[in-house]
Amino acid sequence: MFRNMRDDDQEWLEIHYFRPSSLEKSAPAWPIRLGSNHAKPHYRMGPRYSPFYYLILVVEGEGTFEQNGEVYPLRPHDLFCLCPLIRYEYYTNPQNPLRKVFFAFDGKHALALLERVGLQPQQPYRAGGATVQGIEAMERFFCLVESEATKPPSDLARLSAFYGVFDALTPEAPSATGPDAAEDWLLGGKTYLDLHYADGITVESAAAHIGVSRGHFTKRFTASYGLPPVQYLQQLRLVRAQHLLAHTDSKLAEIAHSVGYPDLFSFSKAFKKHHGLPPGVYRKREQAP
């Protein structure tokens, strides 16, 4: 970053162009180019349009950014973006030239990434948004790319560095309060059950994961979803077991462990209680020609 500058008309510039792989293009978004610049006193970009999204971090200096009829002052650690088909212009203060780092990117979820860092076409500027952590993440991105002469980075490494910048720039979300907070933790508990039911979890571990007592979790879950979480957890396991019994030749003990039961006995007992017949009999019925 700022180490391999070349003299251009209005700036000293370091630029790296990428050729996204098919894997990168299948991702929500991917980087197209990475650069840094040190503006000369007469530096001015635009008015023009960008074919891609740009994320730009001001490192030093001062300037002005204009977009959508709005004028924004540029100062150290400010963050701004460019969006396709939106006219923009920015220029430096001749007495205190800008130094910036940036990348261009594209993808079907590129706009969603911008929104994660507090930017959007109608709000393309965030004062102080280029945090120290964000600039450090950009430095790591540059170091990765500059190592290309000795060890070309993989597409996965490039994507990791790219997303790492957005992660470092994402503002910390305020703690939710009121009804929304309750819905957040309750949905989090249900999602925990949905994703991890096969790993031998319990209602207690789900409640601990979201930071509430088992009793409170059970009461709110039952009121919202119509059955207690222990029954919901059993339902998830038994529905999956039904599928495995009907469509595989796996041993009953293997199925028991695959859906979160510690042993065949507890699985068989739960299955017979729920379906009225043992899992082996259910399999024969479902697989009968």
Q: Key features?
A:
21% strand, 289 residues, 11 helices, Jelly Rolls, alpha+beta, seven-stranded antiparallel β-sheet, elongated, Arc Repressor Mutant, subunit A
Briefly summarize what is shown.
The chain is α+β, with helices and mostly antiparallel strands and 289 residues long.
Structure description:
With 289 residues, the chain is of the alpha+beta class. The chain has 2 domains: 6-169, Jelly Rolls (Sandwich); 178-286, Arc Repressor Mutant, subunit A, CATH 1.10.10.60. The protein is 44% helix and 21% strand. It has 11 helices and 11 strands. The strands form 2 sheets. It has a 7-stranded antiparallel sheet, covered by helices on one side. Strands 4-9-6-7 form a 4-stranded antiparallel sheet, with no helix packed on it. The protein is elongated. The protein starts with 5 loop residues before the first strand and ends with a helix.
Approximate strand percentage: 15-25%
Give a quick account of the main beta sheet: strands, pairing sense, barrel closure: 7 strands, antiparallel
| Fraction in helix | 40-55%
Q: Regions with pLDDT < 50 over 5+ consecutive residues? A: none
Mean pLDDT: 93
**Please, what is the CATH homologous superfamily of the largest domain?**
Jelly Rolls
Describe the strand arrangement of the main beta sheet, using strand numbers: 1-2-3-10-5-8-11
Write the CATH fold name of the largest domain.
Jelly Rolls
